[in-house]
Amino acid sequence: MPREYKWVLLVFFLIVGPGPIVFILNKYTVALLPGISLALYIYLLRNEIRSASFDAVLKNKGFYVWTFRALRAGLIVHLVCAVIFKPLPNLPDTLIQSYVIMPFYTIVVAPIVEEVAYRKIIFGFLSEKYNFWVGASVSSALFSLGHFSPDRLVTYFLVGMLFCHYYKKSGSIGTTIFAHSALNFISLVMLTVKS
Hints:
mainly alpha; 0% strand; globular; 10 helices
């Protein structure tokens, strides 16, 4: 695993992931740390970002097809699991209702930092070292646990597995970033309508 990826994982688990930050949530940590983590990601991955061909990705029709499929599958899982498990509000739901900046972080920052950490780095490394199922299972379990929602463990695990599949099929982390962002946006709209 490249050194930059190890640093990204350290940033993720210490600052925004299921790490120590959960124990010191306040208006300052909630307002500043997600943005700081994204800035650190950009710095750490600057060479990879510079060499990426965003134009080619955006002109590729397959990118949109895979993104739509990932979003559709994620929506189906969320709907089916909501009917079966009837989940209560979780930590992100509470933070969204308490802090004005959280919707931005939920729609823009979280999909980027989570998809890079869970799918690109953890899944990518483990699936290359072992196989798809090991990589997908471990990264999806971490993704699920990282949301601190016992009622939604199955939902997040299944979405994580699907996102691993669509990331591998599309060959672009952008696919799952955009699908994740759209899912979060839809969840945010639903949370707003319920309130």
